[in-house]
Specification:
Length: about 110
Amino acid sequence: MAEQSSKPAQPTESTLALSFLREDIQDLRQDVRQIHERIDHTNGRIDDLRTEISGRFDQTNGRIDDLRTETNERIDDLAKQLDSRYARLMAMLIACTSILVTTMGAAVALLK
């Protein structure tokens, strides 16, 4: 039987190339994992921002609705005041006209 040599076999070029390729593939896999983690983190932040913006939008709409309601109530109050003042003005004009007509009638009756 032939004796086995105690020297380890020297790696051939193809073995070395495969080893380097394996290391490069592992590095690429690690890079891809990191990219996926960053994407997941970014998507989470985008979702958080979307939720925050939606909440603020709803708050703003609520404030606008409150302001609209308050403004409409003020307009209604002013309309009621205007109607009341118009009615008083008309009553005063009718009363003044009545007094004027009565005074004129009395003056004409006295002068006859």
